[in-house]
Amino acid sequence: MSTLKFQSQAVAKPYFAFALILFIGQILFGLIMGLQYVVGDFLAGAIPFNVARMVHTNLLIVWLLFGFMGSAYYLVPEEADTELYSPKLAMILFWVFAAAGTATILGYLLVPYSTLAEFTFNELWPTMGREFLEQPTITKIGIVVVALGFLFNLGMTILKGRKTAINMVLMTGLIGLAVFFLFAFYNPVNLALDKYFWWFVVHLWVEGVWELIMGAILAYVLIKVTGVDREVIEKWLYVIIAMALISGILGTGHHFYWLATPEYWQWVGSIFSAIEPLPFFAMVLYAFNMVNRRRREHPNKAATLWALGTSVMAFLGAGVWGFLHTLAPVNYYTHGSQITAAHGHMAFYGAYAMIVMTIISYAMPKLRGIGEANSNKAQVCEMWGFWLMTVAMVFITLFLTGAGILQVWLQRLPESGEALSFMATQDKLAIFYWMREVSGVIFLLGLLAYIYSFFIGGKAAEKVS
């Protein structure tokens, strides 16, 4: 028996399932890299560190994109109060994107990167060789084609249906995602200029338009699980999004400090980056306020936990840990250290991994025909997954922060004499890397518990009261 309001929402299911498979892959390659930090020759012949890192970061981006697409296909028809324009197009794009993504990852693993560049005719339009954007040019073109088809499908759905603030904010974020990705095709020879525009993709995604996507999904889930008036939630959403865009766009300046750019970027970057935690803090207040004011007891307790956890962890990771090293006088010493890695891990998990898992938690019982929520037994397992992953990520962040502080102290702030070399410093950080690796294993167990919860049977939780 279907519990979906619109049958076309079912196209979200393969997107969510494939996203979680890629997420497992991302964590496995993270564990391989973590071990290579302390056992340098571990799998060195089969999966060199640079390849493992490339796969780890690319899987992160691709699984989140699958998650965002699944989220949009699930919530846009319901918000627009009409069937998806073309479920068939959505499925064709799924298989195209899945095949292209899988082929690209296999290319990284099975072929030397320079050979892959030659094989994919990179010399005709050189775009390869930059972190996060290592994809061959033909893969990048494929991503653009998929994005255009995806936006067309959603746009036509919204045009024929109801226009809501959530759909408008989500579409603005998704269009921005597609537009800023176009800078991936611009690869100037000058390295400083290249990095300048490279951040237009990386920063304006994660600290700009992705925040709109996150805010829209969070608003949708909170409406469903709390029953609070849409008008109240939409007002909060507009305020948060305005703050996020104003601080995020000009906050790009904190990447321009040491790129031979004019000195005013140190002021612009520092001031607006200092404001960036505010929209995330507003999101915490917003989520907890809505849950406290709820008008209904929703049986999906796990989805509510994920929604609250997302706001808190995004604030800690993106807001607090971002602020720790974003001011130019501090960043002068911490730039490119393990403190950056600490911020990156918790921010990506808190803001984007968790929001995707929030909507998967809410939508999967309906997509699988179970009802409003999984059984209580399944939800307990899912909550174990939540706490294992979240606590593990907190410790990963703390251990990387400890490593970063010691790294800065030994390598960049010597009390007397010369600073230690990079490799000599890394040897001193080994204990932090080992603890980070253990935390990573616990995180993987949490992810497996989260996924396993969807396979636990039992009587579905009671209906909304």
TrEMBL record:
GO biological process, one term: respiratory electron transport chain
Entry's transmembrane regions: 15-39, 59-77, 89-111, 138-159, 166-186, 198-223, 235-258, 264-291, 303-324, 344-363, 384-410, 430-455
UniProt topology in membrane: Multi-pass membrane protein
Record GO cellular component, one term: plasma membrane
Catalytic reactions of this protein: nitrous oxide + 2 Fe(III)-[cytochrome c] + H2O = 2 nitric oxide + 2 Fe(II)-[cytochrome c] + 2 H(+)
Residue ranges occupied by any Cytochrome oxidase subunit I profile domain in the UniProt entry: 1-465
Major localisation: membrane
Broadest EC class assigned to this enzyme: oxidoreductase
EC numbers for this chain: 1.7.2.5
One Pfam family here: COX1
Molecular-function GO terms, alphabetical: cytochrome-c oxidase activity; heme binding; metal ion binding; nitric oxide reductase activity
Keyword terms: Cell membrane, Electron transport, Heme, Iron, Membrane, Metal-binding, Oxidoreductase, Respiratory chain, Transmembrane, Transmembrane helix, Transport
InterPro entries: Cyt_c_oxase-like_su1_dom, Cyt_c_oxase-like_su1_sf, Cyt_C_Oxase_1, Cyt_c_Oxase_su1_BS
Pathway connected to this protein: Nitrogen metabolism; nitrate reduction (denitrification); dinitrogen from nitrate: step 3/4
Protein's cellular compartments: Cell membrane
UniProt entry tagged with the keyword Heme: yes
Function: Component of the anaerobic respiratory chain that transforms nitrate to dinitrogen (denitrification). NorB is the catalytic subunit of the enzyme complex. Shows proton pump activity across the membrane in denitrifying bacterial cells. The mononitrogen reduction is probably coupled to electron transport phosphorylation.
Assembly notes: Heterodimer of cytochromes b (large subunit) and c (small subunit).
Family of the protein in this entry: Belongs to the heme-copper respiratory oxidase family.
Protein name, as recorded: Nitric oxide reductase subunit B
Organism: Thalassomonas viridans
Lineage of producing organism: Bacteria, Pseudomonadati, Pseudomonadota, Gammaproteobacteria, Alteromonadales
